[in-house]
Amino acid sequence: MAYFLGIDLGTSAVKCILVGEDGAVAASRSEEYPLHTPQPGWAEQHPEDWWTKTAACIRALLADAAIPGSEIAGVGLSGQMHGSVFLDKELRVVRPALLWCDQRTAAECDWIEATIGQQELARLTGNRALTGFTAPKVIWLRKHEPEHFARTAHLMLPKDYVRLQLTGEFGMDMADASGTLLLDVARRRWSEEVLQRLGIPAEWLPPLYESNDIAGRLTAEAAQLTGLAEGTPVVAGGGDQACGAVGVGVVREGIASVALGTSGVVFVHDDTYEADPLCRLHAFCHGVPGRWHRMGVMLAAGGSFQWWKNHFAFEELHKAKAEGRDVYEYLTALAETAPLGSEGLLFLPYLSGERTPHPDPKARGAFIGLTVRHSKAHLTRAVLEGITFGLRDSMELVKQSGIQIRELRVNGGGARSPFWRQMIADIFGLPVVTVNSTDGPAYGAAVMAASGVRNVDITELCDRWIRPVTRTEPNPASSSRYESFYAVYRTLYDTLKATSHQLTDLVAEG
Questions:
Q1: Distance of alpha carbon 270 from alpha carbon 287, whole angstroms
Q2: Percent helix, strand, coil in the chain (nearest 5)?
């Protein structure tokens, strides 16, 4: 049997999976690498770490599965979006990559929107200038590290650096390129006007591909390092959100996905391009050729739950280690003992600033409504409810755009919890579905590889390989009760905005 290799270059680790011709996952493996925060709000990684760990992960995966590299028919790549990789003429890394969660570019975003105009930028790219995007990072480099800007000859995204190491070829897919703020999303080409007005050299940018296009073949050197066969085709792939959506079958209208990773994403397939005039939702190209998607992003979804676990779940962490279980099972079980609405306790999940619907790097998290009655169970449930309310904010914008959603497909670590799935169904008022593919973006990358190598439509492959496993219907009584709490939650950002900005500025002043 031939296999397809899906690679997902995440923020904390690279994940590699092997998928057979029948769509079944034969093996998976992951390798971690460090995240560096040299200053508050900064987030960087060394591209060399991505490649070293990816090569090691592939070798180990093939060994674990006892599958020779010659049986891998194609490779697909997914990865964290927006990260800026700067290379010089000799293809050496100029400086560590600035990641999607890096918040240093607020001033550069303001400059971009003042230079081009917010409405004109929306017309040209379908999006506002946000701190996570790539273009503001380039402007930051020019302003703050001119010596590095002068050395730069190539600009690419994280997964495209790995593909360069695999194939020796430059390239970027439409979906990932959408998050650079340099793509004409409607026409699926680089925006010459944006590049010119921002002073970013067009020659820095790689050729563009659809996600299932073959964008290169494995070099002899990469074959030796990974154990794959020389000449193995490598498709363009996609950003992690597009790949994750393909990986759960969000490839036609009416189906949305909710990704519960470090960030939280509401992703909606769109057959036609139509940007939100106010740019509250992202309008990006999809990993399905010739299609688009709309997307809302909250920066600390699973990240908020992880923060709670790391700092306040010492007892649960000890039990989990002693019993060999997942600590999140203990935390969701604890949350379930608290009543719906956590007895009037609300949590704002803006621990890393926010993107949708509040593009505000200075937003801050908070617990609101604490009383002496509130226990650890209440706070834990409030964290989960606050994350879910924040995700619903994006779905409200989807509804306002006129797109009708009949089903949510939930993926990521939180999708394993029946309790959280029921909470999502109740707060969104929509059925929540899980599917048989649980490897997220890596699985979507494998689908793209199979589509490109076998010349099969991505939607057709998803219909063959991806099947619903569970379906959770909303509880009408719980949904009605949550509406009242959500209405209060919606007032909190505006109420606390000035305070959050004052605190952020005080810290910045030292």
A1: 11
A2: 45, 20, 35
CA angle 359, 362, 366 (to 5 degrees): 100
240 assigned to active site: yes
Tokens of 453: 């190598």
Residues forming a β-bridge with 405: none
Please give the mean pLDDT across all residues of the chain.
95
15, burial (CB in 10 Å: exposed 0-12, middle 13-18, buried 19+): buried
The three-state (H, E, C) secondary structure of 282-330, written as one string: EEEECCCCCCEEEEEEECCCHHHHHHHHHHHCHHHHHHHHHHCCCHHHH
Helix (H) or strand (E) holding 29: strand 25-32
How does pLDDT run across 281-316, given as a tens digit for each residue? Answer: 889 999 999 999 999 999 899 999 999 999 999 999
**Amino acid present at 48:** E
Of all helices (H) and strands (E), which one includes residue 4? strand 3-9
- At 105, list the tokens: 């570019």
C-alpha to C-alpha distance for 38 and 192, rounded to whole angstroms: 34
Enter the pTM of the model: 0.89
Catalytic option among 176, 184, 240, 439: 240
Cα–Cα distances (Å) from 12 to 9, 64, 156, 238, in that order, read: 8, 22, 19, 18
Instruction: Return d(Cα 166, Cα 182) in angstroms, integer.
Output: 25
Cα distance between residue 96 and residue 440, in whole Å: 27
Q: Minimal CA–CA distance to 97: which of 81, 86, 108?
A: 86
* Nearest alpha-carbon partner for 185 in 285, 113, 116, 272: 285
Q: What's the count of helices (H) and strands (E) in the chain, helices before strands?
A: 18, 24
CA distance 483 to 442: 35
SS3 83: coil
In the structure encoding, which two tokens stand for residue 205, read together?
Answer: 């940018």
In whole angstroms, how far apart are CA 195 and each of 95, 128, 198, 255, 325?
22, 15, 5, 34, 51
Tokens at 314, concatenated: 């010492």
